[in-house]
Amino acid sequence: MNPFQRALIEKTGHDYGFEYVLSGSEGSVNLASARQPAKVAINLESSQFALSFTSPAHALLNAELMRSFPAVACTGESFIAPDQDTLAALLRRAAELAHALPNQASHDFDARLQQELAELPADLKGTEVERVVRQRVGQQAFRSAMLDYWGGSCALTGIALPELLRASHAKPWAECASDIERLDVFNGFLLSANLDALFDRFLISFSDTGGLLISARISSRNKALLGLELPLQLRWIVDEHLPYLRYHRSKFV
């Protein structure tokens, strides 16, 4: 790897979610980030880029990258990017996923919550005000993780207007057994506002294969007005969604 190639890889990493250069061997570039926990080692193999990721959610990260990039070759633990554009896309998606996958949202929540609670007057700690702060910070962390996981687009329609998107819980916040459940990116979907309202009221749900289920309470006319006439399918669904979806369907009306 010559100095120009190394500089190109480091610049691409900096621009797409891996801004720190770590020490490594002469033939590889090792990158990390202060914003998410994943690291990547990048080697040149016959003018192609071989990327090997490590993270606390290593297996999930690799599985999601393989799903996101079905045309990219994967040999063992390495993804083979044939060009700089693919290198950039892999790094960007890996950074998004590393920020979203369990239990990074929970770690972010703990850090933000401690900061906000430290600013509360002592006489408000342990009161309803603290509960409201805890819920607000948690919902912000959940939304941030959802936006990263779904690439800023509705899980069902692909609408990419953040102002219209909501982080929808499958197992409601109040019914979760722990903050880890509440903040699990697989406990729900990123949905446009009208779909979020329907999902929140259990008027729509999804099958184990991602097909949209519509309550009999929604008339044909309202289906048409809501744009729900045609069969709709989640952009993707993984096994980790299923326990939460089954809980949601148990309340589906």
In short:
The protein is an alpha+beta fold and 253 residues long. It is built from nine helices and ten strands.
Features of the shown structure:
253 residues, alpha+beta, 2 domains, six-stranded antiparallel sheet, two-stranded antiparallel ribbon, 10 strands
Summarize the structure in words.
By secondary structure, the protein is of the alpha+beta class. It has two domains: 3-100, Yope Regulator, Chain: A; 104-249, no CATH class. The protein has helices at 3-15, 58-68, 84-100, 104-118, 128-149, 179-182, 193-200, 220-226, 242-249; strands at residues 20-22, 28-32, 39-45, 48-54, 73-75, 78-81, 165-169, 188-192, 204-206, 212-214. The strands form three sheets. The protein has a six-stranded antiparallel sheet. A hairpin with a 5-residue loop joins strand 9 (204-206) and strand 10. Helix 4 (104-118) runs antiparallel to helix 5 (128-149). The mean pLDDT is 91.
Number of domains: 2
Tell me the strand percentage band: 15-25%
**What topology, given as strand order, has the largest sheet?**
1-2-3-4-6-5
Please give the number of β-strands: 10
Q: Tell me the distance between the termini.
A: 60 Å
Mean pLDDT: 91
Residue windows where pLDDT falls under 50 for at least 5 positions: none
Radius of gyration: 21 Å
The shape, in one word, is globular
Helix percent reads: 40-55%
The largest sheet is:
6 strands, antiparallel
Pattern of helices and strands: HEEEEHEEHHHEHEHEEHH
Structural class: alpha+beta
Compute the number of helices: 9
Task: Reconstruct the topology from this structure.
Blueprint: H1 3-15, E1 20-22, E2 28-32, E3 39-45, E4 48-54, H2 58-68, E5 73-75, E6 78-81, H3 84-100, H4 104-118, H5 128-149, E7 165-169, H6 179-182, E8 188-192, H7 193-200, E9 204-206, E10 212-214, H8 220-226, H9 242-249
Antiparallel strand pairs: 1-2, 2-3, 3-4, 4-6, 5-6, 7-8, 9-10
